[in-house]
């Protein structure tokens, strides 16, 4: 965000971003992260702020591309 326009917040507001993985390191990154999170919330864009959460979501997306989600009652597992 601090590097000039157009930046990620502009793209979020324009509807060009559908998913955000935003991990931070350093004071400038933390400052930028606040604006990114706010824009994502207003734009209803899913966001993940930890490496572990980002990896889990990426794995879930990959799994869904392999096969469709199936809903079964809990009793089917026992």
Structure commentary:
The protein is elongated, with a radius of gyration of 17 Å. Helices cover 49% and strands 8% of the residues. With 78 residues, the chain is mostly helical. Strands 1-2 form a two-stranded parallel sheet.
Topology, pairings included?
Layout: H1 8-13, E1 19-21, H2 27-42, E2 46-48, H3 51-66
Parallel strand pairs: 1-2
Question: Care to give the gist of this entry?
Answer:
This protein has about 80 residues and is mainly alpha-helical. It has helices spanning about 10-15, 25-40, 50-65, and strands at about 20, 45-50.
What's the total number of strands? 2
Spatial ordering of strands, largest sheet: 1-2
What share of the residues does DSSP label as strand, in percent? Answer: 5-15%
What is the first-to-last residue Cα distance?
50 Å
Measured on Cα atoms, how large is the radius of gyration?
Answer: 17 Å
| Unreliable sequence segments | none
> What is the element string, with H for helices and E for strands?
HEHEH
Task: State the secondary-structure class.
Answer: mainly alpha
Count every helix, treating DSSP H or I runs of 4 or more residues as helices: 3
**What is the helix fraction of residues, given as a range?**
40-55%
Q: What does the overall shape look like?
A: elongated
What does the average pLDDT come to?
Answer: 88
Biggest sheet layout: 2 strands, parallel
């Amino acid at each position: 965000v601090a590097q000039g326009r157009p930046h990620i917040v502009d793209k979020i507001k324009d509807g060009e971003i559908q998913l955000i993985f935003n991990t931070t390191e350093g004071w400038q990154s933390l400052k930028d992260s606040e604006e990114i999170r706010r824009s994502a919330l207003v734009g209803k864009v899913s966001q993940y702020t930890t490496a572990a959460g980002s990896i889990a979501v990426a794995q879930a997306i990959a799994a869904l591309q392999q096969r469709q989600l199936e809903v079964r009652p809990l009793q089917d597992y026992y």
